[in-house]
């Protein structure tokens, strides 16, 4: 394979695709957390043994999260096209992909956040209560603050999952590396393009995972 | 003064199968400035009892009166203000792992909205008092158990409480460290005049520091009085058992007084072959 010729022909395309994929993933992770953190916190504290038990609220939120988690992304992607158009005016391109990515990831994030918060020892919550901390203060200063390393680890998992979802979004006109892999690699039998796309994805995932691990370790004040 | 009157705590009150009476008709008066010990074995209800004082658990029946005010139904801001006045320390210290020692001691003041520089100044004074001023910037995981408990004591004192609850505060510590912590609690009591309510299963701890003690068994107080009197002349089986003067089975009955279950158990243990043969038959 002639690398110079290959990159002359596809370099710009791959660079644009990589950039689009990164933008899609970063923005949708961000928005998914904006929705997912409050959702995860609410699910945790409204549980029967939670800080603010509320059966009805807990059930409804649980259902919402489960419904969101049970629809395969590729189906959700096309099923909510009218909603996507309503929100961003188009179902195509990067904006068109972000909406379904966020809708799909937010319940996932909620579960990840819930998992992290549940790791917090109940005696810490009790200690904070004994000091006269309000529910809101406990959420903010104990639950979220104490679970930062775990939340960061969760975020790298979410981010990497969304990489995969973003590639799927490529099949319905979102652009990005998924789109390139399908159009060139699959439909035109250009194996070289397919392989390069896969290599870029692998490298991106490795970088994100490493950053996540290092950050979580740096932030964790236990085991010093 | 803490006055507990006819306190009952029942878990799963409406489910006959899981119903559990953790506390039964508890009556206690704890005077200002004293160190009051609640002694009993694990599961006797002493943790539940102490948690009813700062309303981490709610009484099923009865009242908690603190300094002449019935606080039993306190909610919202009233409750938070009440708790500000009652410090608490725990068996496993319960320090915030992601905060420094200083951050931990500042936490209660932060929660009460105290100015940061004032809170920091007070926290450093408290750390100085517990002998850990030089560890202010360390994290809890860098400290020994005894040091962590001293940080917890400093933290519990941050809002200048008049009452301090100690939930098995020395049970996770070795003998020497226990002595240090008890010495510190004694100072807190004498120098700051803080009323201390201490629960423990250790008679040694109770004897070392408590002015008065109550012995609790299966959710009821079986004996109460000045520590010296209870230790010199224990009346209840449980007190005698805790002092090692008498063997008591898990139901609080002196050994020798066998009920049907005990009798059966001792037969089985005495004749393991017969027991396993019976088991084989049952299958």
Question: How would you describe the overall organization of this protein?
Answer:
- The complex is a heterodimer of chains A (224) and B (283).
- With 224 residues, chain A is mostly helical.
- Chain A has helices spanning 3-45, 55-70, 73-79, 81-88, 93-118, 122-130, 135-146, 148-169, 176-187, 191-219.
- Chain A has a domain at 23-174: MetI-like (MetI-like fold), CATH 1.10.3720.
- Chain A is built from ten helices and no strands.
- The longest helix of chain A is centred in the N-terminal third of the chain and has 43 residues, at 3-45.
- The model of chain A has no long low-confidence stretch (mean pLDDT 92).
- Chain B has 283 residues and is of the alpha/beta class.
- In chain B, helix 4 crosses helix 5.
- Chain B has helices at residues 46-53, 76-84, 101-111, 116-129, 145-157, 175-192, 203-209, 227-232, 237-242, 260-270, 272-282; strands at residues 2-11, 20-30, 35-39, 61-66, 69-70, 86-89, 163-167, 195-200, 212-217, 220-226.
- The interface between A and B is medium-sized, with 25 and 31 residues.
Summarize the structure.
The complex is a heterodimer of chains A (224) and B (283). Chain A has a domain at 23-174: MetI-like fold (Orthogonal Bundle), CATH 1.10.3720.10.
Radius of gyration of chain B: 22 Å
Range of helix content of chain B = 40-55%
- Secondary structure tally: strands of chain B: 10
Terminal-residue CA separation of chain A: 50 Å
Structural class of chain B: alpha/beta
Strand content of chain A is: under 5%
Briefly note the structural class of the backbone of chain A. Answer: mainly alpha
């Amino acid at each position: 394979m002639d690398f110079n010729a290959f990159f002359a022909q596809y370099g710009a395309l791959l660079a644009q695709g990589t950039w689009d994929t990164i933008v899609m993933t970063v923005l949708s992770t961000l928005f998914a957390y904006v929705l997912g953190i409050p959702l995860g916190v609410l699910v945790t504290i409204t549980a029967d043994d939670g800080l603010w038990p509320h059966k009805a609220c807990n059930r409804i939120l649980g259902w919402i999260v489960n419904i969101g988690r049970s629809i395969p992304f590729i189906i959700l992607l096309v099923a909510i096209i009218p909603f996507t158009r309503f929100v961003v005016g188009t179902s195509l391109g990067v904006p068109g992909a972000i909406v379904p990515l966020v809708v799909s990831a937010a319940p996932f994030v909620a579960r990840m956040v819930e998992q992290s918060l549940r790791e917090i020892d109940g005696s810490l919550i009790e200690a904070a209560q004994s000091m006269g901390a309000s529910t809101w203060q406990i959420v903010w200063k104990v639950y979220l603050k104490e679970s930062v390393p775990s939340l960061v680890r969760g975020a790298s998992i979410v981010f990497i999952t969304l990489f995969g979802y973003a590639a799927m979004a490529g099949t319905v006109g979102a652009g990005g590396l998924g789109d390139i892999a399908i159009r060139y690699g699959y439909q035109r039998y250009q194996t070289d393009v397919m392989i390069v796309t896969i290599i870029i994805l692998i490298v991106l995932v490795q970088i994100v995972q490493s950053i996540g691990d290092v950050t979580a370790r740096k932030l964790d004040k236990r085991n010093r | 003064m803490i006055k507990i009157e006819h306190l009952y705590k029942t878990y799963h009150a409406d489910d006959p199968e899981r119903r559990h009476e953790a506390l039964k008709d508890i009556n206690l008066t704890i005077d200002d400035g004293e160190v009051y010990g609640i002694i009993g074995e694990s599961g006797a209800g002493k943790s539940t009892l102490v948690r009813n004082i700062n309303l981490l658990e709610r009484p099923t029946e009865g009242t908690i009166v603190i300094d002449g005010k019935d606080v039993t139904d306190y909610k919202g801001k009233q409750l938070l203000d009440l708790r500000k006045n009652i410090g608490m320390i725990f068996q496993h210290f319960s320090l915030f792992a992601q905060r420094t020692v200083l951050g931990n001691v500042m936490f209660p003041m932060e929660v009460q909205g105290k100015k940061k520089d004032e809170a920091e100044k007070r926290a450093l004074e408290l750390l100085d008092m517990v002998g850990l001023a030089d560890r202010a910037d360390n994290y809890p995981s860098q400290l020994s158990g005894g040091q962590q408990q001293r940080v917890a004591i400093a933290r519990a004192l941050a809002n200048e409480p008049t009452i301090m609850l100690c939930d098995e505060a020395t049970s996770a510590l070795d003998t020497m460290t226990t002595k240090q912590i008890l010495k510190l609690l004694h100072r807190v009591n004498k120098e700051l005049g803080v009323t201390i309510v201490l629960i423990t299963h250790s008679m040694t701890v109770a004897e070392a520091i408590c002015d008065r003690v109550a012995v609790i068994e299966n959710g009821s107080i079986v004996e109460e009085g000045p520590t010296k009197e209870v230790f010199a002349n224990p009346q209840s089986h449980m007190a005698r058992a805790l002092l090692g003067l008498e063997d008591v089975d898990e139901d609080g009955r002196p050994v020798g007084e066998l009920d049907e279950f005990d009798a059966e158990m001792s037969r089985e243990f005495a004749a393991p072959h017969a027991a396993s043969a019976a088991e084989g038959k049952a299958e």
